[in-house]
Amino acid sequence: MTVEQETRLLRSVPNRLFIGGEWVHASSGRTFDVVDPSTGASLTTIADASASDGLLALDAAVAARDAWAATAPRARGEILRGAFDLLQERAEDFALLMTLEMGKPLAEARGEVAYGGEFLRWFGEEAVRIGGHYGPSPEGTGRMIVTRLPVGPSLLITPWNFPLAMATRKIAPALAAGCTVVVKPAELTPLTTLYLARLFEEVGLPAGVLNVVTTSSAAEVSAPIIADRRLRKLSFTGSTAVGIRLLEQASANVLRTSMELGGNAPFLVFEDADLDLAVEGAMVAKFRNIGQACTAANRFIVHESLAEEFAARVTARVQELRVGRGTEDGVGIGPLINEAAVAKAVRLVDDAVSRGATVLTGGSPIAGSGTFFEPTVVIGVRPGSDILREEIFGPVLSIVTFTDEADAVAKANDTEYGLVSYAYTRDLARGQRLIESLQTGMLGLNVGVVSNAAAPFGGVKQSGIGREGGAEGIEEYLETKYVLTPNPFG
Ligand code: NAD
Question: Torsions phi, psi of 187, nearest 5?
Answer without folding.
Answer: -65, -20
